[in-house]
Amino acid sequence: MQIGLIGLGKMGGNMRERIRLAGHTVVGYDRSPDLSDVKDLTELVEQLQAPRIVWVMVPAGAATQSVVDELGGLLEAGDVVVDGGNSRWTDDEKHAAELGAKGIGFVDAGVSGGVWGLQNGYALMVGGDKEHVERLQPIFEALKPEGPYGYVHAGKVGAGHFSKMVHNGIEYAMMQAYAEGWELLEKVDSVENVREVYRSWQDGTVIRSWLLDLAVNALDEDEHLDKLRGWAQDSGEGRWTVEAAVDHAVPLPAITASLFARFASRQDDSPQMKMIAALRNQFGGHAVESTKE
């Protein structure tokens, strides 16, 4: 199967490799010539046989809108565009309507897996019409983890990114809980080996998880996280989750508090945010701020 892939950064580049390892042909484009297979989107579209599938992995907002606009002028009726970035679900509805007016299908795919996706596979939450989703099934199978789980056709256009948004909101709250527990353990004189306490939780406890494993990885690299500044960015999905909760009158106290904690981190050098920053770097390769020497 052929597919075009736009955006070959930390996730997109690994996705290209995983799809190719499954035996499919990927024509990739990136603004960096060192990463790109073609010089521009026109050449990418020309190298694909109709009906075409083009997967977009660029930042949400203006960057995604620009690519969708350009593809709308290059693709033909019967082609399908997939937005696999972290776009807001309301943007999906807009993009589907714009492309649909030209006979071009649209699918939104919430993708989770970070920098570990090449090795472990990507969890995929997909929204769109059944006929478009079914055409993409071989690509979804190539990207998802082995086994029966890790993929869902969540519903209509927007459902994939809405599901991924809620996933990330839950992620915020889980990281915050691990971070608060770590700070409290560090403060108590009687606990002399916090890292090994966290390691002891990895087997047999009800709070074991991949995030806990990554926390231990981070502590192995920097036992007291002294090299990190207590500052953590929010990527947008946490805010959108809280806004959606307000719109639907759904109480989200844990997720909301975890979002506000990140805002607080930008005012002080928060010990908890050192753990949040370390975890975000572990699973997603997100930038961290180092303490000044």
UniProtKB/TrEMBL annotation:
Its EC number is 1.1.1.343. InterPro entries: 6-PGluconate_DH-like_C_sf, 6DGDH_YqeC, 6PGD_dom2, 6PGDH_C, 6PGDH_NADP-bd, NAD(P)-bd_dom_sf, Pgluconate_DH. Keywords: Gluconate utilization, Oxidoreductase. It holds the Pfam family NAD_binding_2. The keyword Oxidoreductase applies. The keyword Oxidoreductase applies. Residues 160-293 form the 6-phosphogluconate dehydrogenase C-terminal domain. Gene3D superfamilies: N-(1-d-carboxylethyl)-l-norvaline Dehydrogenase, domain 2 (1.10.1040.10), NAD(P)-binding Rossmann-like Domain (3.40.50.720). One of its GO terms (molecular function) is oxidoreductase activity. It is an enzyme of class 1 (oxidoreductase). Belongs to the 6-phosphogluconate dehydrogenase family. This is Phosphogluconate dehydrogenase (NAD(+)-dependent, decarboxylating). It comes from Streptomyces vulcanius. The lineage of its organism: Bacteria, Bacillati, Actinomycetota, Actinomycetes, Kitasatosporales. The gene is gnd.
